[in-house]
């Protein structure tokens, strides 16, 4: 899974991000380029066009939903999406409900923790339970002329004994 979430786990409001962090966008692009990205329909529809150099797997309950881009595949469940990635590296990119479902199926979380809270958010990342997840890397990014908020890149790996219990 890959996400940017505030300290209160806020992800967005009205199908949009709550902040603008250019360096986080660059990191997202670097990590996900060349891979499959799994998302809910609303997340897909928040993009002006499909993201380049990535296969989009879009989850929707709507059996009639179609997308007219060759780099997009429509499925109707997270299980169906996971079946399409087999042993490949793939990223679950949202939204909130897809993250909740995906946590059990994921082995790694690349989280950008945005230092701030957003009470008016309507979409949230699941709380990371450190009983199941181990923080393996962190890198702080201070505020600057392009970033009004500071943030920290966090990498979590699922603990081996957690694979059975989640």
Automatic annotation (TrEMBL):
Keywords from the named record: NADP, One-carbon metabolism, Oxidoreductase
- Please, which domain of life does this record's source organism belong to? Bacteria
The pathway to which it is assigned is: Cofactor biosynthesis; tetrahydrofolate biosynthesis; 5,6,7,8-tetrahydrofolate from 7,8-dihydrofolate: step 1/1
In its UniProt record, which GO terms are filed under biological process?
Answer: dihydrofolate metabolic process; folic acid metabolic process; one-carbon metabolic process; tetrahydrofolate biosynthetic process
> Which residue intervals define the domain DHFR in the entry?
1-158
Please give the family membership noted in the entry.
Belongs to the dihydrofolate reductase family.
What is the recorded name of this protein? Dihydrofolate reductase
């Amino acid at each position: 899974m890959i996400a940017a979430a505030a300290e209160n786990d806020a992800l967005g409001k009205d199908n949009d991000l709550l902040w603008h962090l250019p360096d986080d966008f660059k990191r997202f692009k670097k990590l996900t380029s060349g891979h499959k990205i799994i998302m809910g329909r609303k997340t897909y529809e928040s993009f002006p066009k499909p993201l380049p150099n990535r296969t989009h797997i879009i989850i929707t309950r709507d059996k009639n939903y179609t997308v007219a881009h060759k780099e997009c595949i429509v499925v109707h469940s997270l299980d169906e999406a996971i079946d399409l990635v087999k042993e490949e590296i793939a990223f679950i990119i949202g939204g909130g409900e897809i993250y909740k479902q995906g946590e059990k199926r994921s082995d790694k979380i690349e989280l950008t923790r945005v230092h701030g809270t957003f009470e008016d958010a309507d979409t949230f990342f699941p709380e990371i339970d450190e009983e199941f997840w181990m923080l393996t890397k962190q890198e702080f990014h201070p505020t600057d002329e392009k970033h009004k908020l500071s943030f920290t890149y966090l990498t979590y790996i699922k603990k081996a004994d957690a694979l059975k219990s989640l």
